[in-house]
Amino acid sequence: MIRRATGPDETSDVVIVGGGAAGLSLADRLTRTTSRTVTVVEPPDGPARPPERTWCYWDRATGDLEEVISASWPRLRVHGADAREVTVDPEPLRYHMLRSAQFERWVHSRLARSSAARVLRATAGTVRDVADGAEVRCSTADGRELTLRARHVFDSRPLPALPPARTLLLQHFRGWYLRTAVDRFDPTVAELMDFRVPQPRHGLAFGYVLPLAPDRALIEYTEFSRTPLTTSAYEAALGHYSRDILRLGTFSVEAAEQGAIPMTDARFPRRIGPAVFRIGTAGGATRPATGYTFAAVQRQSRAIAAALRDGGAVVPPPHGRRALAMDAVLLRALDTGRIDGPAFFTDLFRRTPPERLLRFLDGATTLWEEWGIGLRTPVGPMLRTAVEIPFLPRRTRRADGTRPRYRESPR
Q1: Of 62, 73, 354, 391, which cross-links 90 as Cys (Cβ 3.0–4.6 Å)?
Q2: What is the model's pLDDT at position 4?
Q3: What residue spans define the domains of the chain?
Q4: Using omega within 30 degrees of 0 as the cis cutoff, is the peptide bond preceding 92 cis?
């Protein structure tokens, strides 16, 4: 049940700031596996609420999320810049998609059935530690002030600025939900990367196609580079990709989405006070080299709930040290142009068993498996970059001179 703020001070065991993928996933997990009382603070309706987003991940099964999965694909395809394609079956893994609005309604309905949970529509302000916990200052849409107190606060709001980093790229994109006049898509195959699009002078670009029906799909144009494009530039790139490369013929655009995701080797602090923690993208859940977040958010939520159930409080690192070290090398190699991005990713899919590759991208491979995958990459440029990384300074940078706008959970 969504409740309005009702008093000057309210207390619960846990306050979660932000009702996106990270905040709602944690709230749902806590109410199902612990006896903690939970308050989720979400912005009121209006410009502060983010637009609907698409989230994707791969897993062996849908699990609890089966009710909100919009589509799934058993096969994945990559098109190289040379137009050659590789289609793989990563069994037992499947690629899943869900929409944020449906996910939010689903979690809200589950929270409404729990006497230990509530959702407050208010704008969260300062979060600070106090004796025996922390407090969150909030204001309601009608201007009332409210102070929430809790033993633990988990903040999922986007950071005002990214932490210092050696490398910062953006994964920026615009997508169309479109319908074609005739059947054009194979609903069993998701196109993860199509490098047949023109490549920018810096970074890389690719098309992304998620078929929803033979005549419907989400089609995106994506770049890994330092600065986002204008909306008109994305539109032009999407038009070229849809008409000239995919040759879709007549189609209509039913909806659009746009965003940018930081790809950075910055270190994201997960604990900012004795009782205040960051989760989601703000807590480093976005995988630096891919932009995927949703699966890491689910792992993080399970771990936090288990810790609180056992009497502790911890936000574990969303990704292992080896994975982050490899991502730092890859990002630097892409940013400097030492490796050909389209060739790098295409060769990974062509030369690596698909199930192992997806586990690698999820940080779930062994050191021996990672060694084998590393030998399939441009060894010289990657080694040169690995040697260079420890001597590079970390700087506070913004890709476009302004605060990067990013959506919380991408693919």
Answers
A1: 354
A2: 44
A3: 2-53+99-162+265-309, 321-391
A4: yes
